[in-house]
């Protein structure tokens, strides 16, 4: 998770219906952009824009899934499990908690092969 993600970035993303829906769907299972678009009833360009923003903020990860025919495609998985905001002495402080670390995601990806 990027350490320098601004509070306003995360709050802005969580204020967006499409971004929240993408996080919710991708928290249940890994999904391609097309599967996300179908699940949340959004256009593919809209999903790609939100996915890019969510990945940049570290709230979603992109993984490569290998198909049986030798081709591959990107799938997305939510990493966010909790957001905590605290107002202290005139400043907002944010803590983001993720579900898994990089090693766990690698293990999950390897087990799916």
Q: Secondary structure elements and their pairing?
A:
Layout (H helix, E strand, L loop, with lengths): L6 H8 L2 H12 L4 H8 L3 H13 L3 E7 L5 E7 L1 E9 L2 E8 L3 H11 L1
Antiparallel strand pairs: 1-2, 3-4
Helix pairs in contact: 2-4, 3-4
Describe this structure in words.
This protein has 113 residues and is α+β, with helices and mostly antiparallel strands. Helices cover 46% and strands 27% of the residues. Strands 1-2 form a two-stranded antiparallel ribbon. A two-stranded antiparallel ribbon has the order 3-4. Strand 1 and strand 2 form a beta hairpin. Helix 2 packs across helix 4. The longest helix has 13 residues, at 44-56. The mean pLDDT is 86.
Beta-sheet strand percentage?
A: 25-35%
Distance between the termini: 25 Å
Protein structure class: alpha+beta
Shape: elongated
Strand order of the largest sheet: 1-2
Low-confidence stretches: none
Biggest β-sheet strands, sense, barrel: 2 strands, antiparallel
List its salient traits:
113 residues; alpha+beta; two-stranded antiparallel sheet; two-stranded antiparallel ribbon; elongated
Task: Characterize this entry briefly.
The chain is α+β, with helices and mostly antiparallel strands. Helix content is about 45%, strand content about 25%.
């Amino acid at each position: 998770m990027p350490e320098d993600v601004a509070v306003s970035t995360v709050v802005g993303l969580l204020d967006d219906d499409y971004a929240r829906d993408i996080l919710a769907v991708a928290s249940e299972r890994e999904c391609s952009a097309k599967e996300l678009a179908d699940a949340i009833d959004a256009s593919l360009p809209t999903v790609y824009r939100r996915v890019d923003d969510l990945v940049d903020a570290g709230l979603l990860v992109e993984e490569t899934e290998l198909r049986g025919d030798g081709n591959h495609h990107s799938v997305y998985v939510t990493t966010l499990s909790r957001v905590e905001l605290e107002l202290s002495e005139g400043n907002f402080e944010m803590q983001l908690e993720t579900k898994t670390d990089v090693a766990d995601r690698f293990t999950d990806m390897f087990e799916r092969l």
